[in-house]
Structure formats: structure tokens, C-alpha cells
């Protein structure tokens, strides 16, 4: 009985968490790429993997480490390669 109760409680808690990345755009707002960020605040409304402006170092040689000056880049959950 205890294991079954624990399993049910765990499933309920997991279902309540949901997908925190899911956003809802206000009715009437444009979101061409369907990423949940309206075009008015999306830095690239044609790319569903990029919506937020941030700064990063360019990794010109692909070694996984950036160098040089910080650059503005349109990104999503991660910084684009290169």
C-alpha cells in the first residue's frame, strides 16, 4: 500500500510540473515560428530555437571555448555554435 501511494503521489507531482518552457502567446499576437514568444519580443521570429538576445563569445575554431569580445546573439536555451 505504501509503495502504491508513493507512486501515485510521484505521478501527480510530475504531472503538476508540466513543461516550464511552454509559453502561451496572447490572442491576436503574431508568433510566426510557434516558439511561444510573440514576434514583438522575439529576436528571430523565423527560428523556433532562438528568441532571446544575450551576449556570448564567438567560438570560431569550434573547440567549445569562445574568445575575443562579447557579441550580441539571438539565442534560445543554448548559445548557437560558431
Please explain how this structure is put together.
This protein has one helix spanning 2-17, and strands at residues 52-58, 67-75. Strands 1-2 form a two-stranded antiparallel sheet. The protein is built from 1 helix and 2 strands, in the order αββ. β1 (52-58) and β2 form a beta hairpin. The longest helix has 16 residues, at 2-17. The protein is of the alpha+beta class. It has a domain at 41-82. Helices cover 20% and strands 20% of the residues.
Q: Which characteristics define this entry?
A:
single chain; 82 residues; alpha+beta; two-stranded antiparallel sheet; 2 strands
Intertermini distance: 54 Å
* Sheet with most strands: strand arrangement: 1-2
Strand content: 15-25%
Beta strand count: 2
Helix fraction bin: 10-25%
- Radius of gyration from the CA trace? 19 Å
Quaternary structure: single chain
Which ranges are low-confidence, i.e. pLDDT below 50, for 5 or more consecutive residues? 1-19
Approximate shape: elongated
Q: Which class of secondary structure composition applies to the elements?
A: alpha+beta
| Whole-number mean pLDDT | 76
Taken in chain order, the helices and strands follow as: HEE
Biggest sheet record: 2 strands, antiparallel
What's the helix count?
A: 1
Amino acid at each position: 500500500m505504501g509503495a502504491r501511494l508513493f507512486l501515485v503521489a510521484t505521478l501527480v507531482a510530475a504531472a503538476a510540473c508540466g513543461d516550464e518552457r511552454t509559453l502561451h502567446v496572447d490572442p491576436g499576437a503574431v508568433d510566426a515560428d510557434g516558439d511561444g514568444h510573440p514576434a514583438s519580443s522575439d529576436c528571430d521570429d523565423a527560428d523556433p530555437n532562438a528568441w532571446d538576445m544575450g551576449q556570448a563569445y564567438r567560438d570560431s575554431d569550434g573547440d567549445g571555448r569562445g574568445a575575443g569580445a562579447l557579441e550580441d546573439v539571438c539565442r534560445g536555451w543554448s548559445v548557437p555554435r560558431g
